[in-house]
């Protein structure tokens, strides 16, 4: 194989992958989001008439409109769902950062013998189906479930707390399911920190707490940011957790999308919601990249 | 030159300290006293336990036995952040996310200084290490020598009575190292802080230290001023570590009045100073520059040899001389003021002055 062909393959394959599995499906979704629902197969109009020539294309393009987006903008349901999705994701990300940071810190400070075992323990849940693991939380959180049972046995509460089918249930589920995605990047950053830095802090009179807040945490911030992004993005579109643990009142975009698609069979509206979701998610990624670039530029600027 | 003895109240007192890592004994029953304001160098090859000893003093390692005292107060059980000693790390361990000034001032928290006092202290230290104008720079933007000075200023910020320095000049290139040695000594003299310096570089130890402690496999094998160690090494190991040395094997003769002994070697009898049981297998150690080469006929103990190599080094000639039995001796002599250099293949005489020869156990 010639070098040029190899280079072409190396560069072309990821591009082909992106085009085939991201760009094309997105184009299809985008097109459907501009269509109108119809009782037909497929359940939307217009469809492209491949034999119609230029005239056919003109008719097709004229039939597309922003009707679905107008509906999303006018109906408070979608706005509320979007806001509440962002709210749940933001709150859960904050909880994850607060719980994941000490977890990763403890792992990074554990002895070299224990570290691989602790990492394995974080990863082990992935070997069970995500759906089943979330389902198991129903048994824990339901009124007569393990958690309420234990709390009542301990005499801490008199009657079961309504955790299942509540926002609390959703937050517990999100925190549980996404903790590894927060812990692993944080652990990766913290375990690579030069141990001499913490020794230097201790040598200069800093106790463990001061050393953590002035040395470990600032240097682990890139890990916190990576973990936050890794959790925030999929949580905005999360469907299974709000559906199983949130009850019928929990409003999240993933659920709205699901019900438009499967219950109402309104593919065009569901597609418009999907596009909206994508925009909501791309936003923070772009902001994050911008901030990263600015920081790198600032660091380079200092170097000159 | 007599060894300056530590006064009765040492600054640092290490008593039979031992540290094991699994089956390995890194530091093996080391005892040592340090005078206030003294610069003490721990010298030895890598893995001899010198860095572990330094980390034991700093508190990063807990000893399995023994005690460490500073000014009479027992430090042994104190965690590092409560010990009134500071350390300059081999890698410098500067905080990469902080400016030079923030690095230097990091240790000032909790000393009860006002904001103004702390700022003044930082400014004074930055002046001391000649880094004015670099206060707001990050360590990554500094050169190796500048980083080294930030590390020194940071370690001095808490005004420790004792500063521990782990290979302080190891990361610098040769020319910068010699310049920095002088600077380090000047700062030390000005502040009067006691220094314990770990190094594997003999020249560096000689340039910096009031006293040198040689470590070998976890033990402190000899302590003294550089010259004592160089001229009167206690073992082959110390003799070789401090500089180039000729080692001639032989058998020790009987005790004689006057302290000198005769050692029977393949080169013939050699007069040397030292102790040992008559008949013991020993080596005679002679520094190359103490061999007297050339027209030394008539001196007692003059030996015959052939010059096999002579290298002109500007200020001296380094030569190799093959003796009658095949032993090759290395000599290093100052250039004769006039006259030709001896030629390779020429017969030469070699004399070993008795005060230059030292008996060491084989």
TrEMBL record, chain A:
Keyword Magnesium: no
Pfam families according to UniProt: BPD_transp_1
A GO cellular-component term linked to this record: plasma membrane
Transmembrane segments: 12-34, 86-105, 117-138, 170-190, 211-236, 267-288
Domain of life of the organism encoding this protein: Bacteria
Keywords annotated in UniProt: Cell membrane, Membrane, Transmembrane, Transmembrane helix, Transport
Record membrane topology: Multi-pass membrane protein
GO biological process: transmembrane transport
PANTHER family: INNER MEMBRANE ABC TRANSPORTER PERMEASE PROTEIN YDCU-RELATED-RELATED (PTHR42929), PUTRESCINE TRANSPORT SYSTEM PERMEASE PROTEIN POTH (PTHR42929:SF3)
Name of the featured protein: Putrescine transport system permease protein
Organism: Methylorubrum salsuginis
UniProtKB/TrEMBL annotation, chain B:
Classification via Gene3D superfamilies: P-loop containing nucleotide triphosphate hydrolases (3.40.50.300)
Keywords attached to this entry: ATP-binding, Cell inner membrane, Cell membrane, Membrane, Nucleotide-binding, Translocase, Transport
CC annotations in GO: ATP-binding cassette (ABC) transporter complex
One Pfam family linked to the record: ABC_tran
GO molecular function: ATP binding; ATP hydrolysis activity; transmembrane transporter activity
GO biological process, one term: putrescine transport
Domain ABC transporter span(s) in chain numbering: 12-242
Family per record: Belongs to the ABC transporter superfamily.
Protein name as catalogued: Putrescine transport system ATP-binding protein
